[in-house]
Amino acid sequence: MIIRSTYxxxxxxxxxxxxxxxxxxxxxxxxxxxxxxxxxxxxxSYAALxxxxxxxxxxxxxxxxxxxxxxxxxxxxxxEYPALFHGVLxxxxxxxxxxxxxxxxxxxxxxxxxxxxxxxxxxxxxxxVRAAAGxxxxxxxxxxxxxxxxxxxxxxxxxxxxxxxVAPVSGGDLAALPYSSGTTGLPKGVELTHRNLVAxxxxxxxxxRVRTGSRVLAVLPFFHIYGLNSIMNLTLHSRGTLVTMARxxxxxxxxxxxxxxxxxxxxxxxxxLALAKSPLVDDYDLSALEMVISAAAPLDGELATALxxxxxxxxxxxxxxxxxxxxxxxxxxDRPDIDRGxxxxxxxxxxxxxxxxxxxxxxxxxxxxxxxVRGPNxxxxxxxxxxxxxxxxxxxxxxxxxxxxxxxxxxxxxVVDRLKELIKxxxxxxxxxxxxxxxxxxxxxxxAAVIGVPDRDGEEVPKAFVTRRDTHPGLGAxxxxxxxxxxxxxxxxxxxxxxxxxxxxxxREDPAQGPAGPGRTAGRRPAGPLSARPPRPPAAGHFGN
Length: 545
Prior knowledge:
single chain; 545 residues; alpha/beta; Rossmann fold; GMP Synthetase, Chain A, domain 3; 3 domains; 9-stranded mixed beta sheet; 5-stranded antiparallel beta sheet; 28 strands; globular; disordered C terminus; AMP-bd_C_sf
């Protein structure tokens, strides 16, 4: 059975993404701030952003790049990011966003595979970019006024006359080339067209309700499709103000929420956990906050409810994949009746099926099955990899997500787990994500992950790894097991198999940049709302993937 949205359908214009975003800026909006950079304090009005896009497009065109050519953005979130992204697209070329925390080896793989010819970066990434750049990379542009030896300063890059793009581009042409491992394997280039990205922006509006004048904090990285389309582009299309942060730290995050009177913020579950439990939150005025949207991994319903009460705001969750541009599901802003632990309903224009992976038949309501999705936001394919494309998108256009879900009679979806991550215990199916969500509600547990391990009888049983908070130094395995049992967790919960990690999981300080967050273990990709995967182990994640 195909499940469709109850919202009206969408009509996707045959325009490029820059045309879609800039074609309807009214005069009264031109002077309003489009982007504010919290690192530098610089502000860019909508008029200034439009001018910067044209200047970048002209500079790219003067260098002979156009349709089919690829430029890489290797930078944390900055005020210049929207101008770079849309300037390259305006010239007809393609953007491949790259994780700035990548090693030179990881960057080199993406540069080679994508055929990158131009790279934009910052001084802190320059040495690794240089080491990664092959013969195809013609020029490295460093953001700032000074260009180190062998690189071009951004101001020098822009110098020159304004000229129009050489070749026309349509909605069906390639726009973005983020990298994702999909459901399996090494990272692959995901071919997202202008039409894919435009469609997803139209699909998102009933869920997030970002509007003209909204102030949106962007701490999740733009190199993920979640940050790129569902935060950056959505805010600009809605004529809101995008407030950028280069990286996450809790005090700076709270200060930005307060000082910029943020009304919408997009986060990942580790940030939700910090907001729900840290005493720092009480030191800041967050009264302007209207909505918190969580994605990138499963958010427990109890945690979401507790966070909403603490901040006196609406907390919602969404789901998607890089291959879906990214969003396919979400909890609408006007649906307080929907369970906060769910991923909500299908977005406008999205069709979904819940399919038994053993036989290919649709499962009845309430029974788990693999989620398949179809719509105008689904990728064109994996770059140069028709086999992987055919294994992920079937002949009918359905993207096989690899996530197990249930759907109720009201069309509300819950993620159960990844298809290949279920633990089989005495015939029972145990979902690691469910147990992890229960563990994270314990006030003494900072982080948790569950895996399957063999017992003495050869049966697979769950084993939990937990990180204790400093406030609970005496937390032991027996207490954790009793806590899970008392919360009504499945009988196949952790059985005398709990390992503590002290004091913190490495990398946990920066949840926005892909830490070892809830439900994340090396080599295992969590099922997750609004999936876009932080590509660096052990931070495999989900909102695009």
